[in-house]
Amino acid sequence: MKYKLVAIDMDGTLLNSNNQVSERTKVIIEKAKDKGTHIVLSTGRVLKSALSYSRSLNLKNPIVACNGAIIVDENANIIYKKPIDNSLVKEIVNLAMKKNIYYHFYDESRFYSHVKVDEVLQFYNEGNGNTIIDIKVFQDIEEIIKLKDLNVYKFLFIDDNRAKLQDLRMDLDKLGNIGTSSSWANNIEAMGLNVSKGEALRELCNRLKIMPEEVIAIGDSENDLSMLTFAGLGVAMGNGDEFIKKEADYITDSNDEDGVAKVIEKFVLE
């Protein structure tokens, strides 16, 4: 089988524990590009962060960001977007505030929250020197809702108390028109209904006239499951969640052992 597109999650997959792309992975990605393979970042991250990494790798390929809520083409033009219904934003914020759970949400380039947490910004701004993500801190959600052309693509909730997170997740699911997922043990993510990396990848492949069986998808967490299921070859990282490994067609090495590079070498370059 000739694979024409490789969709790669970022955190825990493409990026190692230092939030960086290894030199070996960079070389292998360049070889795959030279062969004409589409290398597509498919991430839960805000678009601006994904664009920065894509440019540092000189990919010039489409990007799936915000867990599939937005797709840009090789020139960074938005070709698909499914933001959360603005009528639900206030309700979602109130749920998080009531449960005293940290949250932020984002549009294409900026975070919004009621409090600034330096550790969160540092996470997104480290590992790739030219990534600068800022945050708009607000006192009242009403001042954000009234912004013209507001597009909220994803909410992220973080708390080390899993019971609190699961309770919040159940409440979010009850709202309707909201889909939930997770990318780390201590977070919950909320997007518009039926928004996922898998659905975005389906949309992108339709545009590129690429069949699912010509796709490799690589990931490590719950929010990657939909694209691993869609792809002809779904690959779980060695450091990935156990239930992702059980659903995958193939398990590669960890993100600190060049797992992504090894997949591309084996299935694209050999």
UniProtKB/TrEMBL annotation:
Superkingdom: Bacteria
Transmembrane residue ranges: none
GO molecular function, one term: hydrolase activity
Keyword Hydrolase: yes
Annotated InterPro entries: Cof, HAD-like_sf, HAD-SF_hydro_IIB, HAD_sf
Pfam family, one: Hydrolase_3
The keyword Hydrolase appears for this protein: yes
Keywords linked to the UniProt accession: Hydrolase
Name of the protein in its database record: Cof-type HAD-IIB family hydrolase
Organism: Tissierella carlieri
